[in-house]
Design brief:
By secondary structure, the protein is mainly α. The chain has one domain. Helix content is 54%, strand content 10%. It contains 3 helices and 3 strands. Strands 1-2-3 form a 3-stranded antiparallel sheet. Strand 1 and strand 2 form a beta hairpin.
Length: 105
Protein backbone atom coordinates (compact mmCIF):
# COMPACT_ATOMS: atom_id res chain seq x y z
CA UNK A 1 0.00 0.00 0.00
CA UNK A 2 1.28 3.43 -0.92
CA UNK A 3 1.48 6.06 1.79
CA UNK A 4 1.61 9.84 1.66
CA UNK A 5 5.23 9.64 2.75
CA UNK A 6 6.05 7.46 -0.28
CA UNK A 7 4.35 9.95 -2.60
CA UNK A 8 6.19 12.89 -1.06
CA UNK A 9 9.58 11.15 -1.23
CA UNK A 10 8.95 10.32 -4.87
CA UNK A 11 7.90 13.88 -5.73
CA UNK A 12 10.95 15.27 -3.88
CA UNK A 13 13.35 12.94 -5.72
CA UNK A 14 11.78 13.73 -9.08
CA UNK A 15 11.82 17.45 -8.41
CA UNK A 16 15.44 17.35 -7.41
CA UNK A 17 16.79 15.05 -10.13
CA UNK A 18 14.57 15.77 -13.15
CA UNK A 19 12.48 18.52 -14.69
CA UNK A 20 9.18 16.92 -13.74
CA UNK A 21 6.45 19.16 -12.38
CA UNK A 22 4.23 18.13 -9.48
CA UNK A 23 1.38 17.64 -11.97
CA UNK A 24 3.51 15.24 -14.03
CA UNK A 25 4.52 13.36 -10.86
CA UNK A 26 0.86 12.92 -9.88
CA UNK A 27 0.00 11.60 -13.36
CA UNK A 28 2.96 9.24 -13.20
CA UNK A 29 1.78 7.91 -9.84
CA UNK A 30 -1.68 7.20 -11.27
CA UNK A 31 -0.30 5.48 -14.37
CA UNK A 32 2.11 3.41 -12.27
CA UNK A 33 -0.72 2.22 -10.02
CA UNK A 34 -2.72 1.09 -13.05
CA UNK A 35 0.34 -0.59 -14.55
CA UNK A 36 1.12 -2.42 -11.30
CA UNK A 37 -2.50 -3.58 -10.95
CA UNK A 38 -2.53 -4.95 -14.49
CA UNK A 39 0.81 -6.72 -14.03
CA UNK A 40 -0.49 -8.25 -10.81
CA UNK A 41 -3.55 -9.49 -12.70
CA UNK A 42 -1.29 -10.90 -15.42
CA UNK A 43 0.61 -12.92 -12.80
CA UNK A 44 -2.60 -14.41 -11.44
CA UNK A 45 -4.32 -15.18 -14.74
CA UNK A 46 -4.20 -14.44 -18.44
CA UNK A 47 -5.18 -10.89 -19.34
CA UNK A 48 -8.25 -10.32 -21.49
CA UNK A 49 -7.85 -8.52 -24.80
CA UNK A 50 -9.23 -5.33 -23.24
CA UNK A 51 -6.77 -5.53 -20.30
CA UNK A 52 -3.83 -6.21 -22.65
CA UNK A 53 -4.75 -3.18 -24.73
CA UNK A 54 -5.01 -1.07 -21.59
CA UNK A 55 -1.58 -2.28 -20.42
CA UNK A 56 -0.02 -1.29 -23.75
CA UNK A 57 -1.78 2.09 -23.64
CA UNK A 58 -0.56 2.78 -20.09
CA UNK A 59 3.02 1.89 -21.11
CA UNK A 60 2.77 4.29 -24.05
CA UNK A 61 1.37 7.07 -21.83
CA UNK A 62 4.14 6.60 -19.28
CA UNK A 63 6.84 6.67 -21.97
CA UNK A 64 5.44 9.89 -23.47
CA UNK A 65 5.10 11.53 -20.05
CA UNK A 66 8.64 10.65 -18.97
CA UNK A 67 10.16 11.72 -22.30
CA UNK A 68 8.53 15.12 -21.73
CA UNK A 69 10.89 15.84 -18.85
CA UNK A 70 13.97 14.33 -20.54
CA UNK A 71 14.10 11.03 -18.68
CA UNK A 72 13.69 7.37 -19.55
CA UNK A 73 11.53 4.64 -18.05
CA UNK A 74 12.27 1.05 -17.05
CA UNK A 75 9.36 -1.38 -16.78
CA UNK A 76 9.49 -4.50 -14.64
CA UNK A 77 6.71 -7.05 -14.97
CA UNK A 78 7.21 -8.61 -11.52
CA UNK A 79 4.54 -6.95 -9.33
CA UNK A 80 6.21 -7.93 -6.05
CA UNK A 81 8.44 -4.89 -6.35
CA UNK A 82 8.32 -1.60 -8.14
CA UNK A 83 7.04 -2.06 -11.70
CA UNK A 84 7.91 1.42 -13.00
CA UNK A 85 11.28 3.12 -12.51
CA UNK A 86 12.35 6.46 -13.94
CA UNK A 87 15.91 6.93 -15.15
CA UNK A 88 16.81 10.58 -14.66
CA UNK A 89 19.49 12.45 -16.65
CA UNK A 90 21.80 12.75 -13.63
CA UNK A 91 21.67 8.98 -12.94
CA UNK A 92 20.21 9.16 -9.42
CA UNK A 93 18.61 5.93 -8.19
CA UNK A 94 16.79 4.92 -5.02
CA UNK A 95 16.44 1.20 -5.64
CA UNK A 96 18.75 -1.69 -4.85
CA UNK A 97 19.23 -2.65 -8.51
CA UNK A 98 20.39 0.86 -9.46
CA UNK A 99 17.79 1.08 -12.25
CA UNK A 100 16.18 4.42 -11.41
CA UNK A 101 13.74 6.21 -9.12
CA UNK A 102 10.96 3.87 -8.04
CA UNK A 103 7.45 5.10 -8.75
CA UNK A 104 5.35 3.91 -5.78
CA UNK A 105 2.11 2.17 -6.64
Amino acid sequence: MITSKDRMEFAFAMGRHSRASIHECRRLLRYAATYQRLEETACNRELTAKESAKLENVEKCIRLLVEGFESKVHFQSDPRGCCVKVRTPDGYTNDMGREGICVPA
